[in-house]
Amino acid sequence: MLYTSVAACVGRTPLVELRRQFPAPGATVIAKLELMNPSGSMKDRSAAYIVERGLADGTITPSSHLIESSSGNFGIALATAARVHGLEFTCVVDPKTTPANLRILVHLGAQVELVTDADEHGCHLGARLRRVAALCRERPGSVWVNQYANERNWQAHYHGTAAEILADLDRPLDCLVVPVSTTGTILGLARRLRTSFPGLHVVAVDAVGSVVFGGRAGPRHVPGLGAGRRSELLGPGEIDEVVWVSDRDAVAGCRALALSEGILAGGSSGAVVAAIERLRPAWPPGWQVVTVLPDRGDRYLDQVYDDDWVARLPVPDAITVAP
């Protein structure tokens, strides 16, 4: 098939059974390899959907200057979509953004704004959002993408990711396990998959130190997992269970996945592995579980896969679970 652009290649990622990491007996665990999207993460879906729908309805115009706060993957996905559609894009980042991600943003033509102010927990989100607001005031034609409140974030996964899962599954789905930050992915998947499987058990995997589900704010070091603010997209009662995973446990999950399945994935994928290892003994052996591996690990070779960086992480808390 001939595609008109790299943006048209987003999606149609494979489902893979993780039978080496999670062998029988026990629930079957199937992963959606979102790390195989063109820019290397599931954020390609929401970025492409937001930009294309915005251009279609006029909320984004050919002269718009997109502005967003991102720790990396969503910024890279937006930079890719902006290049395809000839839009200007500024990404507001902080010191925790990996050097590799910064270089990718620059080479994709994005303007990069770095903020350094942090709260008492080392979180830079407040400073990033203040800089976004200032840039929107300063630059005519600016459009704040706002992934935490943009309804098209979850709709991209409702119409795309979830539809692909339904088309590829060969038997009923019992449980969905998804790492969270903006909650767009888990909400889009849960809302669509529950139309076919009303009894679906939905598990969110969050970071220790994240406040997405009311957890106590604290330092977080693994990129792409958890957040320093609650998402406006999340409705009450949509998530059945929350598992909080420490940085060190997420790292251990990443390394286990690489050695068992040959999948080099990012920190949020490692958190999913750690959470499933915790929960699987209590699941019925006949359950079919679907999870998402959001991004590639090659951007985190200096972090998640670097022994010196890992040695500096705090001693992990135990994984906790909440209904």
Count of DSSP strands: 11
Distance, first to last CA: 45 Å
Specify the oligomeric state. single chain
CATH second-level architecture of the largest domain: 3-Layer(aba) Sandwich
Mean pLDDT: 94
Adjacency order of strands in the biggest sheet: 1-2-10-7-8-9-11
DSSP strand content = 15-25%
Alpha carbon gyration radius: 19 Å
Q: Which runs of at least 5 residues are low in confidence (pLDDT < 50)?
A: none
H/I helix tally: 9
Number of domains: 2
Kindly identify the CATH topology of the largest domain. Rossmann fold
CATH class designation of the largest domain: Alpha Beta
Question: What does this molecule look like?
Answer:
- By secondary structure, this protein is α/β, with parallel strands linked by helices.
- The protein has two domains: 187 residues, Rossmann fold (3-Layer(aba) Sandwich), CATH 3.40.50.1100; 102 residues, Rossmann fold (3-Layer(aba) Sandwich).
- The strands form two sheets. The chain has a seven-stranded mixed beta sheet, sandwiched between helices. Strands 5-4-3-6 form a four-stranded parallel beta sheet, sandwiched between helices.
- β4, α3 and β5 form a beta-alpha-beta unit.
- α1 packs parallel to α2.
- It is globular and about 60 Å long.
